Amino acid sequence: MIPNVEDYYDPGRFERMRQFAQGKETPFLVVDTAIVGDQYDELTHAFPFAKVYYAVKANPAPEMIDLLAARGSNFDIASIYELDRVLSRGVDASRVSYGNTIKKSQDIRYFFERGVRLYATDSEADLRNIAKAAPGSRIYVRLLTEGTQTADWPLSRKFGCQPDMALDLLILARDLGLVPYGLSFHVGSQQRDIGVWDAAIAKVKVIFERLQEEDGIDLKMINLGGGFPANYVNRTHELSTYAEEITRFLHEDFGEELPEIILEPGRSMVGNAGVLVSEIVLISRKSRTSLHRWIYLDVGKFSGLIETLGESIKYPVYTDKQGELEEAILAGPTCDSADVMYEDYRYPLPLTLAIGDRLYWFSTGAYTTSYSAIEFNGFPPLKAYYI
Predict the structure, then answer these.
(1) Quick one: 199 and 277 in the same domain?
(2) pLDDT, block means (10 residues), the chain with 387 residues
(3) Which CATH number covers residue 97?
């Protein structure tokens, strides 16, 4: 069904974004920065004991960095390019974590020379590079986690290591003159099963105890990663429910005196604040008796909607048009057969839709502009406006 605006946005805010979009050439993203501020406030209220490290990769716009920096956020950085952007906005390097476990030695040195002292790792080779290029720095090791079946965008295969290797790495970090500081995990982006945090925290507890009892290493920090959801078609619990349960898991394992807790929100921080405005380029059927239409848009996988890959993220798609609904396949404008957003999951859209009509993609503030290709088929990167 066509989503109800009030289920996703304050109607006044959505109307403000729609009025702003009038007369502008599609496709483009409109982000209501007030929503991002509200999301930050909600998160810090739900987790008053935690430090927030915004995952810059979700949306690296200067407007996002400035807003969150002013509110007190720290920043999770994936590359030297993100680091340059964040530092150029006046953020001190003490508020930065190098959260990418895949990094060149010269990039580690680049971070170190600019004052960053907190690094993620999940392999011996990377750890030894850190010891050489960033001596004396604090290290946290990323664990492999379960929960891939209940996360819309899983992240477990490429990153992290098993607990026995995490133990070895933290001991080696001490021996190399680094500071074994903590552990991290990521349960998967858009994680709908709160219970996976329980299992991950239990793993962390075992490692904390073994290192303290057997090796005299006293870890100080747990990085819970991201995973908190945005509002897509498949709805999830409210953030307050996530917070209540995760806080309970932490206290069950660590008692009243918790270690330092870090959160790395990205999608949940900026996703809900964005509306992607697109235009219908063409509507067709593949046969005279076809029961569904192909609706081709001026935005697609390569211009910001890559997370529709495998139809993983299902964005709510809104139109002003009314009338009888019929299922439709939604596809992008490029000369690439992979540029189809939804074919198995067919969106019911009005039969009154016509070429030139606009479709509004809700909750697209995260991982759209940052994923948008540069000049694939000659199309420019996705434009964005921040209001």
Answers:
(1) no
(2) 90 95 97 97 97 97 98 98 98 98 98 98 98 98 76 66 96 98 86 85 97 96 90 84 95 96 95 97 94 96 95 94 96 96 95 98 96 92 97
(3) 3.20.20.10
